Amino acid sequence: MKKIKLMLLAPSLRGGGSERVMLNLIKNFDRRVFDLYFVLVKKEGPYEKEIPNDVQVFDLNCRRTLKAWRSLIKCIDIIKPDVILSTASQLNILLLMIKPLIPKKTKIIIREGSIPSENIQSNRILWRYLYRKYYNQADVIICQSSFMKKDLVDNFKVDRSKIKCIYNPVNFENINMLIKEKKNPYLNYNKNLQCINILTVGRLSSEKGHRELIKSIPLLKMKRSNANLFILGEGPLKNELFSLVRELNLEDCVYFVGFQKNPFVWMKYADLFILPSKYEGLPNALLEAIACQVPVIVTNHPGGTKEIMKITQQTHRIIDEFTWDDWWFEKPTKKTYEILEENFNILKIVNKYESLILELFEVRKNGEN
Amino acid sequence: MCGILGFLNKSKKFKKYESEIIIKKMLDSIYHRGPDGFGIWSNTQGNLFLGHRRLSIIDLSSNGKQPMTSKTGRFTITFNGEIYNFDEIRKEILKVNNYRFESNTDTEVILAACETWGILQSLKKFIGMFAIALFDDKENCLYLIRDRLGEKPLYYGWQGDSFIFASELKAFREHIDFKGKIDRDVLSLYFKYNYIPSPFSIYKDIYKLPPASVLKMDLTTYEYKIFKYWDIDTTNKFDTSYSDEELIEQLEKLILQSVRRQMLSSDVPIGAFLSGGVDSSTIVALMQSLSDKPINTFSIGFFEKDYNEANFARDVAKYLGTNHTELYVEPHKTYDIIQKIATYYDEPFADSSQVPTFLVSQLAKKDVTVVLSGDGGDELFGGYTRYLLINDFWKKINYIPLSLRKVMAKTINLVESLQIQKFLDSSIQKKMYQIFRGADLLTIKYPEELYNHFVSSWNQSNEIVLGSKPIDAFITSAEVGSLARQLSFYEWMMFVDLNMYLPDDILVKVDRASMAVSLETRVPLLDHNIVEFAWKLPFNQKVRGNTSKWILKQIMYKYLPKELMDRPKKGFGVPVGQWIKGPLREWAEDLLNEKTLKEQGFLNTKIVREKWEEHLLGIRNLQPQLWSILMFQSWLKENQ
């Protein structure tokens, strides 16, 4: 069988979930079946170092996604891929806009990483138009949860039959390896082992709900005076959140630790992981926290979070208010981890992507019925 | 073993990422040569891009990653092959230069050697098989280098504004500037010899770098020149005072040294092809004498008795105590391979032993990553039966004066033109055809012409390729013609084969078949010390009476009993002539379809159909001719 030329397209390697998924896929795609071409609008970001040795990145070197259209056309013209797998809404739409210039036999798969109707806050009318007009042009649309699928169908009239749900993979092997790599990171902040460390991971932007979380910390302090909150991530809201912490006089118990290469040790040694988002496509951080076997609490928000909680049998841990009850801190059972492993292990997810691509060529992967 | 490639972006019309994509595509096309990884490099000016595909043999860590740049930054290399004496060279470098080696690879040793002694001096020290692309930043030059005997392939050529080079032609096809125009003159050479002789390739303006050659490209002027860095000295012979025993002992030492080197320079399991013939048996015997454990040997058997050597191989393996694997190939599996085999050869190639070579490579790859083969023995020590036959034949016809021979030939031609054979019994017809064919031979003036005639499967191959004109290959070149005056006819035939048949047929066959399954083959008899030694030997050491490869056999008898080895030589072929009449007929008919042939416009349809029908009717066995047409058609189908 001739190998399939697979072009993977992403905006950059900044620390986002979509980029992480692309990296995980690229690390695991079967080299005997696919010739991989990894194209980035701009080669930058902390994940750059994680690119495997046998993957070459092609850098279109454009500051803004929309400006990359010309390079993208040229690039596709040279590669002549059999399949393009693209991620991030802007890039997806750009790719679909230039579709008339792409050879007909090239299949386009787009991966939607967020919930579109929540994601488009500015220029709503324009975005709604673009989504409606272009998303149906793709051969396959991959989303991460049934909630996302419903959103695309109901709000953007995307053809239901084109949408496939594939969860984000969790790289257990990598997590378990990295967990062992470093010591308890909280010890650098408080020498007192009695401290309670609460962790949240995510981009510092309004949809992630940090503001509300910080506002509830005084209540937490009343219940547990030895509790600290650690916020991992960078983002535009940083200064505002800083001032909020100062305003509430929480400087000695709320720590902004920025982007961390190894977030898993932070997860492992935390007493509680909290996801205060307002919506989520399918939060990788939550999956990873469960993989690190830390107790998790999530706010009741639209998106894939509920699906994860349902699969891992933790729906009772979806909360409406930050009440900081004692049961929040109870350790999860081993079963929770096992269910997660069963459903989200990377090989299983990669296999789903591979089969989906091969099905487009009417080839079935060996060993599958 | 690996794959190398690259290109010069003369007009700088490609952006960096565009060039990188092109290189990556080229690398993907030769994935089979090195599935363990790849690397891409470009110079600061952005007009040179190098790529490498890796099959890990030595230093399996990522330290061996190529393209690799030397310590001072002057040289950057992408390299395919093995330098067997790299350890010795490394020690030599350390004596004169404080080079800090970071890996245990021969690649780094090549770079350090170039830093220490310069490129040409270093080349003299290397023992091995290699194809190298080396960029010298100081001189702003690119060097393409091929090993002395042409074991590793390297193609190059200008296509528009891009100068492209690669281990295989497949990679060229991925380059945007590749034009892919089939060279009809070269195609007619292919039909003549059943392979494409150096320096040509099937495509216009793309060439094979001849063995022992360096191509130096100036990256400022974009002009290149090619020169040889090594050659066989055919005049330098041992003086007659050496006894047989002394020479045998010296040769044995040399071969042992070569086998030892080739066995040692590998961090992966190693084995050997064993056909049961003199060359492979000798190599296996020496390998086993150097190893405490049984070595792995492999052979392929055929159910067709006339073509089967596996039982001989088994006897040799049993005697030497090797760990022997043999596979009797089911006929239908062979048919499957035949239908696919053209895809593994990036040029049309029609030596039917390509089929068993592929099968034995596939078999060996299951257990080992490197194999040693006995190739080269026939060319070096005069082993081919045809040498004796043609030599004798020439002696016989040379008794008759040329003028008389011409009259005889004319008479035969006249009889042929009367077409009376058509009314005769088919057995008499066959005999008459033989005589008609022989008529041409009578008019031959020089023995060299006779040899050329003998090794050609279509003498008038221009007739079959439409729009082609005759061109010279190595065998008919003026340079080789003048050598005929210095050498005996027998030695001249060996010299021609060593320079043409060996690199362009035998070694291509072995490289492509083994690389298709990611297996590295090594050829210990082609160590240049052995080649030089062989050419210094007096002729009677190679051929004594009717015994060819005399000296090699004396070495072999030290390890294997004479009774076991005394039997007639067999070819490594398969009965494709019979198969295309039977089980493969449908496949052949499809490829020789009149309409398709006409549409393609390369071949003279009338001749092709005539030959095909003659073969089917059993008037003549036209296996070599038809096999070359089928392989070309099959190649064309895959590559157009």
Q: Could you characterize the architecture of this molecule?
A:
- Chain B: One of its GO terms (biological process) is asparagine biosynthetic process.
- Chain B: GO terms for molecular function: asparagine synthase (glutamine-hydrolyzing) activity; ATP binding.
- Chain B: The active site is at residue 2.
- The complex is a heterodimer of chains A (369) and B (640).
- In chain A, the strands form two sheets. Chain A has a seven-stranded parallel sheet, sandwiched between helices. In chain A, strands 10-9-8-11-12-13 form a six-stranded parallel sheet, with helices on both faces.
- Helices cover 37% and strands 17% of the residues of chain A.
- Chain A is built from 15 helices and 13 strands.
- Chain A has two domains: 4-169 and 345-360, 3-Layer(aba) Sandwich (Rossmann fold); 172-343, Rossmann fold.
- Residues 364-369 of chain A have low confidence and may be disordered.
- Chain A has 369 residues and is an alpha/beta fold.
- Chain B has 640 residues and is α+β, with helices and mostly antiparallel strands.
- Chain B has three domains: 2-228, Glutamine Phosphoribosylpyrophosphate, subunit 1, domain 1 (4-Layer Sandwich), CATH 3.60.20; 244-383 and 501-565, Rossmann fold (3-Layer(aba) Sandwich); 574-640, no CATH class.
- In chain B, the strands form three sheets. A six-stranded antiparallel sheet of chain B has the order 2-3-1-9-8-10. Chain B has a six-stranded antiparallel sheet with strand order 4-5-6-7-11-12, with helices on one face. Chain B has a five-stranded parallel sheet with strand order 15-14-13-16-17, with helices on both faces.
- In chain B, helix 7 (244-264) crosses helix 8 (278-290).
- Chain B is globular, with a radius of gyration of 25 Å.
- Chains A and B meet through strand 2 and helix 2 of A and helix 1 of B.
